[in-house]
C-alpha cells in the first residue's frame, strides 16, 4: 500500500471511530448523479458510466449496512430521465433490473418507490417479482426510486386518497375535509416509513430536483463535487460526520 492509501485508511478509521459517539440517520436518501459526466471524462460510453454507477450503489448499501443505517432510498431513475434517448433508456432498464437483483441477492429488503406504470412491462414485472422474494427481516431496507418524481408522487397520493374516500360514499365537501397532512402521508410511496434524516447528492449539483419532495421538509442535505461512480466510503463518513455535528431545528 502506498503512502496515500495508508493515509486514506487511517483517516477512514478515525472518522468511523468519531461517529461511534453519535446517533446516525435512520433514513438516508441518496441522489446518484454524475454517471454520464464521469464516463465522458473517462473516455467511456454512457452505458459504462451507468454500470459503474450501479455497482457503486451496491457498494454504498454495504457501507450503510455496516454502519447500522436501517433504511436507504436510492434515486436510480427520475421521470425526467424517461425523456432520454431510447437507446440509453434500454441500457438503463437492463442495468437497473440487474442492480435490483444484486441488491436482493445481498439480502436486503427492496421496495419500489415510484410509478410502476411508467416502466416497460418486463422491467415492472421483474421488479415486482423481486420484491416478493425479499425478506422483511433484512437489516437494511432499500427503496429503489425508479420512474420517480416528487410532484408525481404527491399527485398519486392525493388521487389514491380521494378514491379511497370516494368509496365511503362521501360528498365533495366531506372529502375535502378529510384531506390532511397525515392522510396524504399515508398514501405516499414511502408510507409507513420515517422521513429521510439526511439526503446526499453527488456531482456538484446543489438542488433536490424533486427528490422526496414531501418527505424532505425537515431533512438535512449534503452535497459533494464527486461524481457518483467516484464516491468513496470516506465520502459517506464525512457526510455523516457533518450531519451529526449539526443542530437540527426541524423548521424552527
UniProtKB/TrEMBL annotation:
Active site: 33, 81
Binding site for substrate: 34-38, 50, 78-80, 84, 201, 207-209
EC number(s) reported in the record: 2.5.1.-
Cofactor note: Binds 2 magnesium ions per subunit.
Source organism superkingdom: Bacteria
Residues the record lists as binding Mg(2+): 33, 220
Biological process annotations from GO: polyprenol biosynthetic process
The protein's required cofactors: Mg(2+)
A GO MF label: ditrans,polycis-polyprenyl diphosphate synthase [(2E,6E)-farnesyl diphosphate specific] activity
Keyword annotations from UniProtKB, A to Z: Magnesium, Metal-binding, Transferase
GO cellular component, one term: plasma membrane
Role summary: Catalyzes the condensation of isopentenyl diphosphate (IPP) with allylic pyrophosphates generating different type of terpenoids.
Subunit structure: Homodimer.
Family that this chain belongs to: Belongs to the UPP synthase family. Z-FPP synthase subfamily.
Protein name (Swiss-Prot/TrEMBL): Isoprenyl transferase
Amino acid at each position: 500500500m502506498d503512502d496515500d492509501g495508508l493515509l486514506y485508511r487511517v483517516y477512514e478509521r478515525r472518522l468511523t471511530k468519531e461517529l461511534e459517539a453519535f446517533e446516525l440517520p435512520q433514513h438516508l436518501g441518496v441522489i446518484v448523479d454524475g454517471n454520464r459526466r464521469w464516463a465522458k471524462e473517462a473516455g467511456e460510453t454512457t452505458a459504462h458510466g451507468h454500470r459503474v454507477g450501479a455497482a457503486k450503489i451496491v457498494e454504498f448499501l454495504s457501507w450503510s449496512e455496516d454502519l447500522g443505517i436501517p433504511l436507504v432510498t436510492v434515486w436510480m431513475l427520475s421521470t425526467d430521465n424517461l425523456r432520454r434517448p431510447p437507446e440509453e433508456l434500454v441500457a438503463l432498464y437492463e442495468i437497473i433490473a440487474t442492480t435490483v437483483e444484486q441488491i436482493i441477492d445481498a439480502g436486503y429488503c427492496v421496495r419500489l418507490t415510484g410509478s410502476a406504470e411508467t416502466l416497460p412491462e418486463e422491467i415492472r414485472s421483474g421488479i415486482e417479482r423481486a420484491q416478493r422474494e425479499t425478506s422483511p427481516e433484512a437489516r437494511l431496507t432499500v427503496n429503489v426510486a425508479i420512474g420517480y418524481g416528487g410532484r408525481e408522487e404527491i399527485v398519486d397520493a392525493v388521487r389514491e386518497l380521494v378514491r379511497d374516500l370516494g368509496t365511503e360514499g362521501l360528498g365533495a365537501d366531506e372529502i375535502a375535509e378529510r384531506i390532511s397532512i397525515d392522510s396524504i402521508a399515508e398514501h405516499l410511496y414511502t408510507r409507513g416509513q420515517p422521513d429521510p434524516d439526511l439526503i446526499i447528492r453527488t456531482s456538484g449539483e446543489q438542488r433536490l430536483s424533486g427528490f422526496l419532495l414531501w418527505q424532505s421538509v425537515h431533512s438535512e442535505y449534503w452535497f459533494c463535487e464527486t461524481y457518483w461512480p467516484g464516491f468513496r466510503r470516506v465520502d459517506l463518513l464525512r457526510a455523516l460526520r457533518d450531519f451529526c455535528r449539526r443542530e437540527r431545528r426541524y423548521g424552527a
